[in-house]
Amino acid sequence: MKILFAGSSIYGADIDFDSIELRPPAAHGDLARAVLDGANVIGLVDGVFEAIASVWHKEILFALQKDIIVVGAASMGALRAAECAKFGMIPIGKIAHSYIDGSLDDDAAVALLHGPSELGSPPFTDALVDIEATLAHMQKCKCINHDQADRMLKNARKTFFKERSIEAIVSSLSNADYLKKQYKKHFISQKQIDAIELINFMKQLPQQNSETKISWKLEQPRTWTVALNNLKNKTTQLNS
């Protein structure tokens, strides 16, 4: 079984998931639940944070210890893949590798405000990594110059992620309407590009566990064992 956690990063994309089961952005316990559900491959793209506890690193390690292939990209998946790559999690795409090589070090660069998962988690604001990709593309197309891109990027970086929109970015600039129009015309979502790369990678994997054996041991503190047992009990109740 292949399970993918994704939402806003793939919103609006026409994707054939083939044999992949799509689940909403992952919260604390969701990856461990995927392991208990019998997953062979787990893809992490989007995840929740702030008001709801995020995916534990421990549950990623739990999956890896079970010889389950775990891949991450685009958003929360890129962050966790960079943090857990040395344990066997596979980073996919430009964003994840930028976190690994240190060229990107801000967790909030992939954050955005989005709607409910029941509606596919539609994005209401733009992630900084997408803004950067779009501005770079706009410069290549020569619809903005370096100075304009620099001012827009500075505005984006100082804007809180829940308010980071093209309207907020250009509100203080004299040619705001033109910049807004060109931005929307040339918009590039690096998060979606990386998410689709991960999905294509998952499609190519066989429906079986990894043959690569880990060289480390998963420690099992009481906090983890209690959480896992509670999750197992809930899973048993749902399946009974």
How much beta, percentage-wise? Answer: 5-15%
Shape: elongated
Helix content: 40-55%
Given the structure, what is the number of helices? Answer: 10
Q: Roughly what is the average pLDDT, rounded to an integer? A: 92
Alpha-beta content class: alpha/beta
Low-confidence parts: none
How many strands appear in the DSSP assignment?
Answer: 5
The strand line-up of the biggest sheet is 2-1-3-4-5
Q: Tell me about the largest β-sheet.
A: 5 strands, parallel
Overall tally of domains: 2
Q: How are helices and strands ordered from N to C?
A: EEHEHEHEHHHHHHH
Give Rg in angstroms.
19 Å
Distance between the termini: 20 Å
Report on this model:
- There is one protein chain.
- The protein is an alpha/beta fold and 240 residues long.
- The protein folds into 2 domains: 2-106 and 191-239, no CATH class; 128-188.
- The protein contains 10 helices and 5 strands; from the N terminus they run E-E-H-E-H-E-H-E-H-H-H-H-H-H-H.
- It has helices at residues 30-36, 57-65, 76-84, 93-101, 128-140, 146-157, 166-170, 176-185, 190-204, 222-239; strands at 2-5, 20-23, 41-44, 69-72, 90-91.
- Helix 3 (76-84) packs across helix 4.
- The mean pLDDT is 92.
Produce the secondary structure layout.
Layout: E1 2-5, E2 20-23, H1 30-36, E3 41-44, H2 57-65, E4 69-72, H3 76-84, E5 90-91, H4 93-101, H5 128-140, H6 146-157, H7 166-170, H8 176-185, H9 190-204, H10 222-239
Helix pairs in contact: 1-2, 3-4, 5-6
